[in-house]
Structure formats: structure tokens, C-alpha cells
Write a structure and sequence with these properties.
- The structure is a single chain.
- With 98 residues, this protein is α/β, with parallel strands linked by helices.
- 15% of the residues lie in helices and 26% in strands.
- A hairpin with a 3-residue loop joins strand 1 and strand 2.
- A 4-stranded mixed sheet has the order 1-2-3-4, covered by helices on one side.
């Protein structure tokens, strides 16, 4: 894993559910959402596990290399490797570059 960011996505029962977007290292073997959740189950207690995992080829970063959480949060939920989609759409706040 090269980088990760955690955020809430809409959940039908709880309002929001914890979801992790993960950028895999270039040399990492192919992984699925289930593979990552299984690996996390070995390292985290149950209540800290994300409900879903989104795999990204690259997470958006700012000029100093930090992951921009607002740009990593996808609007549509998808599974498998996907490109992060900005939650801001066309109206990006000042100082944020998606």
C-alpha cells in the first residue's frame, strides 16, 4: 500500500459508512477489495474496519505530496480499480486542485 484515505459514504441505515480509498504500490500484486479487507481483519479490531474499500491507481495529491481527501472521495460507488472522482465536481473551492 502506497497511501490510503478514509471517509464516509452514504449508508442506507446509518447515514454514512466508513470507506477507505487505497493506492497500491506499483510493485504490489493484484488485489481485490475482499483481499484487502481480509488483510485488514488480521490487523484491526472489528469496529475499526472500513465497510468498503476502493482501489485507486493514484490518489490525488497537493503540491507538497499530501493526499487531498476531498478530491479522493468518489461520487459514484464502484468496485475494483478506479480513478478517484472529485466530490466537488466543477465547483472546486479556492486552494484545492483536483
Amino acid at each position: 500500500m502506497a497511501a490510503a484515505v478514509v471517509f464516509g459514504l452514504a449508508h442506507p441505515d446509518f447515514g454514512e459508512g466508513v470507506t477507505a480509498a487505497i493506492e497500491l504500490r506499483a510493485d504490489a500484486p493484484p488485489m481485490t477489495e475482499a483481499d484487502l479487507l481480509d488483510a485488514l481483519k488480521e490487523r484491526l479490531v472489528r469496529y475499526k474496519l472500513p465497510e468498503g474499500v476502493l482501489l485507486a491507481d493514484e490518489l490525488p495529491r497537493n503540491a507538497i505530496g499530501k493526499v487531498v481527501k476531498g478530491c479522493a472521495r468518489p461520487l459514484p460507488i464502484s468496485t475494483g480499480r478506479n480513478d478517484p472522482v472529485s466530490q466537488y465536481g466543477e465547483d472546486v473551492p479556492p486552494g484545492v486542485s483536483c
